[in-house]
Design brief:
This protein is an alpha+beta fold. It has one domain. It is 43% helix and 10% strand. The protein contains 5 helices and 4 strands, in the order ββββααααα. The protein has a 4-stranded antiparallel beta sheet. Helix 3 packs antiparallel against helix 4. The longest helix has 15 residues. The relative contact order is 0.13. The mean pLDDT is 85.
C-alpha cells in the first residue's frame, strides 16, 4: 500500500493499484472531486473529448466542476450549520460517473436538475455561509 502502488502515465494520468477498477485518475491526486476511469485508454479518450470541448489542452473534469459541492455534506465540517442543511454525502457521484463515460451533456443536465430541484436548500446554505462570515 502507499505511493509505490501508484503508477504515473503521460497526460497527467495515474493508476492506483491499491483499489479495484475504476482506478485511473487525472490530476495531481485523489480526493472528493476525483473522476475515476476504468482504464488508461478510456481515460485518454474521455480527456481528449473534454479538452476539445473546453478548448483547453490541460483541462480535466473534477467534481467541483459540477457546481454540486455546495449541496453536498462532504463539503462541510460535521459541526457546521451547513452540514445539517446539506442534502447527502457524495452528491456528485453520478455526475462523475457520467463524466468518466464522456457523457458531458448528461452530466450537465443532471447537475442542473439537482441545482434547480434544491434551489431552496441552496438559498439556506448561502444564507448560513453569509451569516457565518458576518
Amino acid at each position: 500500500m502507499g505511493i509505490d502502488h501508484i503508477r504515473d502515465y503521460k497526460d497527467n494520468l495515474s493508476r492506483d493499484f491499491n483499489i479495484s477498477p475504476p482506478n485511473v485518475y487525472a490530476n495531481n491526486g485523489q480526493g472528493c472531486g476525483t473522476v475515476w476511469y476504468p482504464t488508461v485508454p478510456e481515460a485518454r479518450k474521455v480527456l481528449q473529448k473534454f479538452r476539445e470541448l473546453m478548448k483547453n489542452e490541460e483541462a480535466t473534469p473534477e467534481g467541483s466542476d459540477s457546481g454540486l459541492c455546495i449541496l453536498c455534506k462532504c463539503h462541510y465540517s460535521f459541526h457546521s450549520d451547513e452540514h445539517g442543511v446539506a442534502l447527502q454525502d457524495h452528491l456528485c457521484t453520478k455526475w462523475k460517473e457520467l463524466m468518466a463515460k464522456g457523457d458531458f451533456e448528461g452530466a450537465r443536465k443532471l447537475a442542473q436538475k439537482l441545482l434547480d430541484k434544491h434551489e431552496h436548500t441552496l438559498l439556506q446554505l448561502r444564507k448560513a455561509e453569509k451569516d457565518r462570515k458576518n
